[in-house]
Amino acid sequence: MKISIGCDHAGLEMKQAISSHLQKMGYEIIDCGAYSADSVDYPDIAREVTTAVLENKIPGILICGTGIGISIAANKVHGIRAALCTNEFMARMARQHNDANVLALGSRILARSYAVEIVDVFIKTAFEAGRHENRVDKIKQMEKTHERG
Ligand code: RB5
Fold it and tell me: pTM (2 decimals)?
């Protein structure tokens, strides 16, 4: 199983901690940067990770200082449902109810060890479908009807 991951300069250490944890668990990491602490713009990273998510049909993880900017950017991409989660319950619901395909985290919000636990819940939880499928379908419909030329 592959997972795409990316961060801006604020999220570098958290990305490294999550990546090495996932590699130990046997996941193959598609690392979309940043690769140093030099300042980068989080939308550029969101574009790279979301492209990998859509092309490979795999989960993505995005990290910036708060998780806000990078989740906003990711959610501009058709087909992406990025969920900014600050705890395990949110991560579980993001998968079970929202079929989120990207987890966004704030490196200045969460302890690194807790972020790893949130990641574990996110990647191990399946979409429940059922009554939630119709709602996710309506989100997909909004991507089409709210398109601007
Ligand atoms: C970078 O300083 C910071 O603005 C960014 O990581 C993020 O928190 C934006 O939402």
Answer: 0.97
User: How many domains does the chain fold into?
Assistant: 1
Domain that holds residue 49: 2-145
Cα(138) to centroid(ligand 1), Å: 30
How do residues 37-90 score in pLDDT, each as one tens digit? 999 999 999 999 999 999 999 999 999 999 999 999 999 999 999 999 999 999
CA distances from 19 to 1, 12, 127 (A): 13, 10, 23
> Distance between CA 10 and CA 6 in Å, rounded?
11
Expressed in angstroms and rounded, the spacing between residue 131 Cα and the centre of ligand 1 is: 35
Catalytic (active site) residue 132: no
